[in-house]
Amino acid sequence: MKTITSLLLLAVLSAAVTQTRAGNDAGEHEPYRVQPGDLLTVSVWKEESLQGDVLVRPDGGLSFPLAGDISASGKSIQELTKEFTDRLEHYIPKPVVTISVKTIGGNRVYVVGKVARPGEFAFSRPVDVMQALSLAGGTTEFASLNDIVILRRDNGALQAIRFRYGDVERGKDLTQDVLLRSGDTVVVP
Fold this sequence. Notes:
Layout: H1 2-28, E1 39-44, E2 51-55, E3 61-64, E4 68-71, H2 77-88, E5 97-103, E6 108-113, E7 119-122, H3 129-135, E8 148-154, E9 157-163, H4 165-169, E10 185-188
Parallel strand pairs: 6-10
Antiparallel strand pairs: 1-2, 1-5, 3-4, 6-7, 8-9, 8-10
């Protein structure tokens, strides 16, 4: 009986690790999305006057000579490069545009409530709820672990996503351990 229980426990843990890895692998292949506060370096080949750093404004836009005002927030670097190229083609034949992220300033999540170190946390790669709790130093002994809520704003509407720490800790319902988006707040009551 003890061997069967051990084998079942091993199978559950193995499935949980496999599911977690699959979820992380899928998230790592998505392109980085530009956020307000990011500092981008833009360079147009053979055009010295069209090279420099550009800050993405709080409204998600940026301005660049000849390209004008561009909405950058939520776009990948590849999408931005294409938009710059399309706009500059009106002035420069076959422009070669290179854009890179110099400083990631916009991707931030917040962890508040009964954690060791509540606050704002910057991230440059996908972060899930468990990882955010770890960044905050873990929960305190008085935290209501099965009443954690992720607050997310979608198109202006505030959404609450429930998170039961105990389930995830035991390898159950791992779909709750969602990847956080910039601006999400993890509330630990």
